[in-house]
């Protein structure tokens, strides 16, 4: 599995995917739907899928001495590794905003979502949607990337819409705090998102493994 | 000893059926898989490599069942498609550096030796290679991990006569070293130069498997016999 992961990160992933990790810095943009940074990062991974399809990556991979199930697992593992790097970057930016910039006027006047633990939870939900709808959809055919990505885009913007609307609802203003108040309940939401992310990724991986086994290349 | 045994492979597609394909490839021999375009050669090779799922039948390598021993078997075989190239914009050295990680018996010295023998520049990308050189690159990857069996899909198609001849000489050289080769082709003259056996497929059905000499008889060429048989089959279909 280590070799497949290295293959994914060094051969399949394109430089753009790594450059798009920097969209995590969008966490700092005031007056902007900062969850779009997570979407743009996913766009970078999508570009890698497009590139590897043109490079006959699936055929190359299945001819290696690995099982078809491992080929699928390698793709998910690479996505998870990249997503965790993006998540850690988002988390680092969020902590800076929560600790050092919680009193900054630009963030206090921000009508849109603040960077806090709820924001990080939604970042994970976007990644979960990517793994479930895009990667899962890709392995229905192992070559079609357009349709699954459109499905992901729709789900992604529904998630962003919910996240941006949430703190405007009565009684849910705490989801948009700038500092560390309500940390306990925010941590619970983040923990729930971690569980959803893990479950969506594992279930999608298993479905994809079963689908890929049946695909004629 | 048989390196590869195919038993009763069948696969049904809308508009095409591969039916009851069975043949054996003996160790240290070269077998040609022949048939006209669309006969089912590539589908047969893909079924042999578990790239398409046969509806029925069994494939075994080295007396090991493919489905149960896929990883172990792939360590001992190599595949090259004539027109297929992987990562055509990546440098050859980058592709080789990743590929070798997967093989227990990768021999770096052997890889360098074959790269030199085939005049391949590791700093080039596959997109910069001619069709013949692409086949050679695939052969380097297969031979560097000590593949005992090479499965090649139309390796000589699209090559000029000199490159084809050169490739066939390489096959003969590899055979002398104990490597077994199964390759599909519709260029029957290539087989007369290097192959021991043929398996002949027409419309998804196996017409013949065995030695070339038994199929052709004396004095005739494989091409003429095949054309004659195809012509008869065509007329039969036409008159039905």
In what range is the share of β-strand residues of chain A? under 5%
State the low-pLDDT regions of chain A, or none. Answer: none
Average pLDDT of chain B works out at: 86
Could you name the CATH topology of chain B? Rossmann fold
The backbone outline of chain B, from C-alpha atoms, is: globular
User: How do the SSEs of chain B run, as a string of H and E?
Assistant: EEEHEEHEHHHEHEHEEHH
Instruction: State Rg of chain A.
Output: 18 Å
Fraction of residues in H or I helices of chain A: over 70%
What radius of gyration of chain B results from the CA coordinates?
Answer: 18 Å
User: Biggest β-sheet of chain B: count, sense, barrel?
Assistant: 6 strands, mixed
Count every beta strand of chain A, where a strand is a DSSP E run of 2 or more residues: 0
Q: Helix and strand string of chain A, N-terminal first?
A: HHHHHHHHH
CATH superfamily of chain B: P-loop containing nucleotide triphosphate hydrolases
Going across the biggest sheet of chain B, name each strand in turn.
Answer: 6-7-8-3-9-10
What is the CATH architecture annotation of chain B?
A: 3-Layer(aba) Sandwich
Largest sheet of chain A: none
How large is the count of helical segments of chain B? 9
What is the CA–CA distance across the termini of chain A?
22 Å
Structural class of chain B: alpha/beta
Question: How helix-rich are the residues of chain B, as a percent range?
Answer: 25-40%
């Amino acid at each position: 599995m280590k070799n497949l992961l290295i293959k994914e990160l060094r051969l399949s992933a394109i430089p753009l995917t790594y450059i798009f990790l920097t969209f995590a810095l969008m966490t700092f943009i005031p007056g902007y739907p900062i969850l779009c940074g997570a979407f743009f990062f996913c766009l970078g991974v999508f570009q890698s899928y497009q590139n590897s399809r043109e490079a006959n990556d699936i055929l190359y991979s299945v001819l290696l001495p690995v099982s078809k199930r491992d080929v699928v697992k390698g793709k998910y593992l690479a996505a998870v590794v990249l997503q965790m790097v993006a998540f850690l970057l988002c988390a680092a930016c969020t902590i800076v905003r929560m600790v050092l910039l919680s009193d900054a006027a630009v963030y206090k006047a921000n009508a849109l979502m603040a960077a806090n633990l709820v924001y990080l939870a939604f970042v994970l939900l976007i990644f979960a949607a990517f793994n479930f709808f895009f990667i899962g959809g890709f392995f229905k055919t192992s070559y079609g990337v357009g349709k699954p990505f459109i499905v992901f885009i729709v789900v992604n913007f529904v998630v962003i819409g919910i996240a941006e609307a949430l703190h405007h609802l009565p009684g849910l203003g705490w989801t948009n705090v700038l500092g560390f108040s309500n940390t306990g309940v925010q941590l619970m939401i983040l923990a729930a998102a971690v569980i959803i992310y893990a479950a969506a990724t594992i279930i999608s991986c298993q479905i994809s493994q079963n689908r890929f086994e049946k695909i004629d290349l | 000893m048989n390196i590869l045994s195919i038993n009763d492979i069948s696969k049904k597609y809308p508009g095409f059926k591969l039916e009851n394909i069975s043949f054996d490839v003996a160790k240290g021999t070269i077998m040609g898989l022949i048939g006209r375009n669309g006969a089912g050669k590539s589908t047969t090779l893909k079924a042999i490599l578990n790239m398409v799922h046969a509806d029925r039948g069994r494939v075994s390598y080295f007396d090991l069942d493919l489905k149960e021993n896929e990883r172990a078997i792939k360590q001992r075989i190599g595949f090259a498609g004539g027109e297929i190239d992987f990562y055509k914009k990546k440098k050859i050295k980058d592709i080789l550096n990743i590929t070798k990680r997967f093989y227990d018996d990768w021999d770096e010295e052997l890889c360098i030796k074959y790269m030199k023998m085939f005049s391949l520049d590791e700093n080039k990308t596959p997109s910069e290679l001619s069709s013949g050189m692409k086949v050679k690159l695939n052969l380097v990857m297969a031979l560097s991990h000590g593949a005992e069996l090479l499965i090649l899909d139309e390796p000589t198609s699209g090559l000029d006569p000199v490159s084809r001849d050169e490739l066939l000489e390489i096959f003969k050289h590899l055979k002398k070293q104990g490597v077994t080769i199964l390759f599909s082709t519709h260029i029957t003259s290539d087989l007369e130069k290097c192959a021991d056996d043929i398996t002949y497929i027409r419309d998804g059905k196996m017409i013949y498997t065995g030695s070339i000499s038994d199929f052709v008889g004396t004095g005739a060429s494989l091409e003429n016999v095949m054309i004659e048989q195809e012509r008869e089959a065509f007329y039969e279909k036409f008159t039905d």
